[in-house]
């Protein structure tokens, strides 16, 4: 058995690129003690993307996963875990849109972490996936300030006494939704969060929790009624669960906004988290006619090319949906809605102009400019405010440092020609959400 597990670890470790398993991974952080926090990592794979073997009257699946968590502050691997999931289903009817969901829990000190999770379908080893992201784990220390945990999005939450259930948490059965996607197949958003230091952090005997849904422009969504709850100070910490009906929201990006205030409406603490709606049957609130008129003259291949170039700003749900579209009319309507949600014809013109400029500036004999790392950054964030260029120097390969002074108070992007073929790769950035490697210079040293 040890030899088998070791072989599986080596197999799953070799996959570093995105596959087709449909792996989604998310996390939430809660209080454990003043020294440690409670890190939950939850993940899912789509049943419709798995390979089944029929035996013993069931449709069986076999998956192997690997999780690595690195403490970035100490540059040390603190969690390395591999495991199998094997189970069977009576049939595959309704598998599309359904997920296999699981949760992992760890106690960790406050700090910065890198989470890398990989999965492979053992019945089809070409079916694999990999997800990596950074996690900032705060401390929830006792004190006179009210604190709030992560907001956790869930498929369902119900009362439970089964402490052996993997999804049991604080007298509830909490089934997380790692995709953070709701709408057509998941019409109700369930949420879970915790509050700490209520006795010392709230003046008076009561406090108020207000829950709203915001659109992508951070404005309240009128289709969802604001929820307001008055709570008494019963315990020093509290668990809050609730639901939001999102079945009537059009496809798009939204935010769940939670604000906790005292009885006099003084804000004490709050949290906000992004989620996605996929509702193709609901008419968008934006005017798509002008953009559709612009794309109406494009052939189907030109529509495909334009959306491919727009993929840098598309959600995964939009990418998946576009792949399913059949016929030029459906693609015209989709692309019209896509651009209208992001600013209409003016935004489309600016974006495509940047694509053209990226092709002119960064095209190599290996790939067009818009597909390069420099091209992507140029298209998404615009021209840099300043560029430092460092051609070949002693023991160093060429690199560039791009400065953006208005992004997050000032950020940099570092591109380097690691292989010496004029192909500059993104090695490091200080912008949240981009690749970060403080040791990027070592990658450029001649050996």
Automatic annotation (TrEMBL):
Question: GWxTD domain: which residues?
Answer: 309-416
> What Pfam family is a match for this entry?
GWxTD_dom
**Lineage: superkingdom:** Bacteria
Q: By its UniProt entry, which NCBIfam families does this protein fall under?
A: GWxTD_dom
What name has this protein been given in UniProt? GWxTD domain-containing protein
């Amino acid at each position: 058995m040890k030899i088998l597990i070791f072989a599986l670890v080596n197999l799953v470790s070799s996959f570093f690129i995105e596959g087709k398993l449909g792996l989604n991974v998310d996390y939430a952080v809660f209080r454990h003690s003043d020294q440690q926090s409670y890190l939950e990592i939850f993940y899912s794979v789509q049943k419709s993307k798995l390979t089944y073997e029929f035996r013993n009257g069931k449709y069986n699946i076999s998956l192997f996963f690997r999780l690595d968590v690195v403490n970035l502050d100490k540059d040390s691997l603190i969690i390395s875990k591999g495991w199998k999931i094997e189970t069977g289903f009576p049939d595959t009817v309704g598998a599309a849109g359904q997920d296999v969901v699981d949760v992992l829990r760890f106690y960790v000190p406050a700090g910065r972490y890198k989470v890398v999770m990989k999965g492979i379908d053992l019945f089809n080893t070409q079916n694999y996936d990999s997800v990596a992201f950074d996690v900032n784990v705060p401390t929830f220390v006792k004190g006179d300030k009210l604190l709030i945990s992560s907001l956790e999005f869930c498929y369902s939450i119900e009362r439970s006494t089964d402490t052996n259930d993997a999804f049991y948490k604080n007298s509830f059965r909490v089934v997380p939704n790692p995709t953070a996607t709701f709408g057509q197949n998941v019409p109700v958003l369930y949420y879970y969060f915790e509050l700490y230091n209520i006795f010392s952090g709230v003046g008076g005997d009561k406090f108020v929790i207000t829950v709203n849904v915001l659109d992508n422009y951070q404005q309240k969504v009128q289709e969802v009624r604001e929820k307001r709850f008055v709570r008494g100070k019963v315990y020093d910490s509290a668990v809050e669960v609730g639901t939001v009906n999102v079945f009537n929201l059009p496809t798009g990006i939204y935010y769940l906004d939670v604000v906790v205030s005292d009885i006099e409406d003084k804000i004490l603490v709050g949290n906000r988290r992004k989620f996605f709606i996929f509702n193709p049957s609901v008419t968008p609130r934006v005017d798509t006619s002008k953009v559709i008129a612009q794309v109406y003259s494009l052939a189907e291949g030109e529509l495909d090319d334009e959306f491919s170039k727009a993929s840098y700003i598309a959600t995964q749900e939009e990418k998946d949906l576009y792949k399913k579209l059949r016929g030029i009319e459906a693609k015209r309507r989709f692309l019209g809605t896509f651009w209208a949600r992001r600013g209409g014809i003016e935004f489309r013109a600016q974006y495509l102009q940047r694509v053209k400029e990226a092709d002119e500036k960064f095209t190599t004999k290996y790939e067009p400019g818009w597909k390069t790392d420099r091209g992507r950054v140029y298209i998404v964030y615009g021209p840099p405010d300043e560029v430092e260029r460092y051609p070949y120097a002693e023991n160093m390969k060429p690199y560039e440092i791009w400065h953006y002074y208005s992004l997050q108070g000032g950020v940099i992007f570092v591109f380097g020609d690691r292989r010496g073929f004029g192909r500059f790769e993104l090695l490091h950035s200080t912008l949240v959400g981009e690749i970060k490697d403080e040791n990027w210079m070592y990658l450029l040293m001649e050996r």
